[in-house]
Fold:
Amino acid sequence: MESLAAIGRFSGFSLAVFQRLLFGPWYLSSTWKHCWLVFVRCLGPVVAVVFPFGMVMAVQGLAIFELFGAHRMLSSLIATAVLRELSPVLASVLVAAQGGSSFAAELGSMRIKEEVDATEVMAVDSLSWHVVPRVLALVIATPMLNLAGSVAGIAGGFFTAVFVKGEQGGVFLAELWTLATPVDVFGGLLKTTVFGLLIGLVACYQGYTTSGGAAGVGRAVNDTVVYSVLVFISANWLMSSVLFGAGL
Structure:
């Protein structure tokens, strides 16, 4: 019963946030500030994680394609996998771990220090002022980081295939879009937009409803990472089935 009650509270919180996302007010300067901070904090980790994955895919892919003499298809395999799944998922995990957890900590600290209550006392809607800019920031920043991760993953594959394994760079680039399509790029951006929204809602909910002092803030940060990853991984299965499983 407690789990159902928690789901109900989160649903009510999400509906209230959606209402403000649609009808305002919007504090764009605050949104841009949070978006920029998330992008700067997460860009390095995203590139540092996805680039080696592209390198590993090149090594493993070449080992398999050598059996069939299909080396030229390596770049298409890397591009398809990176654009559809690898970059969106890894970028979103790092956003949850870095951006989502920091938002939960900030809101949780403000809740413990009664800053959120003070906002309400001043007749300022705390959801519009504190929550909506952070949710919008993750909605905007996560697809941007996914683009950076996609470029890094393909670059990692190119580096390994051409400079380590001696494949032809021209062939790698010429065959890059043989299997990959613009739908893969659009699908990755769409998925990370939804993932950013889910991470933002979970993170802000955990921070906004924090209780129990400093220990409560720590629990909110931990729960943000765990729950947001579980939620968007489940959403990833559904969206991948719709976008790519149907052969679109």
Summary: The two ends are 40 Å apart (CA to CA). Residues 12-245 form one domain. Residues 74-112 form the longest helix (39 residues).
